[in-house]
């Protein structure tokens, strides 16, 4: 008998061998030699994780119990692969173009990247896979037991459970080493896939060897074995039609939905060529796996003592005939089946758990964005390792709870029904654009609830969760809620019962909720992309389009970077790749460089989308489009901000220019004034000096002459005084030192006074006709009347001096509004030129070369006075002649003093 | 004349090839339906122990259907692969699948 140590050594050696295979595969993948790793044969063999220890041991058990029914489990997957053109091809294409990492990711991407949905699906998958992992533990434990070694495991307690525990620990460690050695963006695991392919060969070889041994060793070839089959207790066709059809459907559904199958079928797939080969090669593998199942079962039933466990015929049959080597090979086959399943399932589940449960929660708790790459990598890896351990330990817990008693195939089918609940949401999502998130959530939740209630919890055994009483009479005695006779329909096979109700209600919920709900925008776009994937994604051939593709890239780059820069970039890259000609190969490195260059001009998301479109690896996802829209929005906002700023700058510059012009004119005026004022001062001074000299020296002057000269001197002195008075007045007004003498008076009186004063001024120029409306002048104002009169006088004498009309006329109009009085002085002259208008109120401003004397202070004084009186004086630009408008309050606020 | 023939000949050739390719896709789609029908035939058989067929016959039938499906699938997919390669050689560019 093979000793425990020898068996353990064989196991460890086998595991070590797998490690080496995985390591070598990973190394060559890193060196870029993925060709042989990615061959269709390896892909097909990796699909064989469908055949787990359940298949390896359980199929024979199932055949011994129920006859040919076992084969239905292989018929479903065969149909799916033969019909790859329907669903699998589409799934693979979607998986590649949307960068799908797991089945939960697929579902959530389709339904608007809903993380809630992904979380639900992940939790359900963990639950659904748990029985399956328990199944693997059970089969490995049983196979150890067959060699009579379970008892050799030292320590107390139930030896079976202890074995299962150590197997679980071993598998967890094994998977952590295998599956989380590094993080790959595409979630592809070259090493694991290669190891699985090797295991696929081992288990097929083991089963075929046992089969050949049975048919040609223990029987006399095929005719003899067929006779023995017919003579055995499973000799006639007695399969329940419902189970035959149901299990075929179930296995097909599970083949698409099992997380581990999705991992190898979709995530690890490269292109259509793989699928074309697998479409016939994988059914062939399944055919070979099931070919000898019935012969082994029949011969086992025949030769082995009654009551021996048919699940273990594959092991016990060679062992009972003394072929230990064959038995060990068969043991390794079973071991391979179990390990490969657990490894891939744990990897697939841990990807889901870490991506859809741990990371969202961790990111929310810590509040950091996904930008901190190093830290997040560590968290992801830790999350995966922990979830692998968790998943395997859950399987162990299920094994312990269910007591490891029920037949292998029964447990496997429980798991199948569970994971198949995702099928309506998945197929609906890729074929029906109307499927919505609400529909998917309703479907998945309904399906899993029914499965948990009517199959999963009862499968743990009577009295573990549900009491026997509840099973037979329903919860709280409600008859139609009995877990295995829902709605009062009894006596159906429990598996079919759950399959029927869960799939039916699941699908109904999916359609009803999809129809009554309304999808969000991302959901609708994703839906269109998924359903019409073949219109959206480029042909797979463009992966290897070579130079033509580089030319496309160059054309695009020229448009964005400019011809010279683009050519320089391509040349530089070509040199670096040491390729002749100017066009580099479109290697990932080069694409990255190009993308970065383009990103500088058009933004990262746009660049990625553009390069992606030409390289054709991935179609543009909605997220890409949203990112593009976002970037454009930012660019637009930025440019509009720039526009505003530049408009503001232009405005400021204009103001500055205006101010500068004004300053220049003011400076010119000041110079003119200085010369004017010196002239004004000099003229009277020189005449005063001249006449006073005549008076001093001229003793012979007569009295008339003397008096004439003295009066000239007097007049000139008055002129000087007036000029100085004006200057003084202005300076007092400007420095706000003036004190106002506020009184009440009638405007008409003030105008009369002003008219008289202006008329009396002899050198005021030609007389002017003044038109007034005496009725309107009956307005009482409270203000400094003398100052106001001074303004009037100024305006009247200005009109006299400057109105150049043949028949000069001044019209004075008075109006009132809102407690303000407006007095307009409009003459019929030429008016003041536009360029001079803003200068007339400045000090020393005089228009053109003045004929009449005056220092140009009149209007400046007017403006200052009006400001003191809380009013203003403006030039009226709309009148024909020169027009001034005075505005002042009827009652001046005393506080203003 | 020769020019005309070439002009006229090429599109017809291409059209016929893409027509063949589409029919090949139809065949690929039809295959699982045939398989399903074939494998559901046992449902028609009686399970009455007196009239039920022998297990060996059932087994032979199921595996024969299986083998037939696999051979048909192999033929179709190898034809597809050949088309694919021919396409790449002559067109070089991309054309919409489906």
TrEMBL record, chain A:
UniProt topology in membrane: Multi-pass membrane protein
EC number(s) reported in the record: 2.7.13.3
GO cellular component, as recorded: membrane
Start and end residues of each Histidine kinase domain: 676-892
Chief subcellular location: membrane
Pfam families: HATPase_c (PF02518), HisKA (PF00512)
GO terms, molecular function: phosphorelay sensor kinase activity; transmembrane transporter activity
Gene3D superfamilies xrefs: 1.10.287.130, Histidine kinase-like ATPase, C-terminal domain, Sodium/glucose cotransporter
TM ranges: 6-25, 37-59, 71-88, 116-135, 163-180, 192-218, 247-270, 282-306, 326-349, 378-399, 411-432, 439-457, 499-518
Lineage top rank: taxon: Bacteria
Family named by the database record: Belongs to the sodium:solute symporter (SSF) (TC 2.A.21) family.
Protein name in UniProt: histidine kinase
Organism from which the protein derives: Thalassococcus halodurans
UniProtKB/TrEMBL annotation, chain B:
Entry keyword annotation includes Transmembrane helix: yes
The organism's taxonomic lineage, starting at the top: Bacteria, Pseudomonadati, Pseudomonadota, Alphaproteobacteria, Rhodobacterales
Keywords: Membrane, Transmembrane, Transmembrane helix
Record field: transmembrane: 27-46, 58-76
Descriptive protein name: Uncharacterized protein
Organism: Thalassococcus halodurans
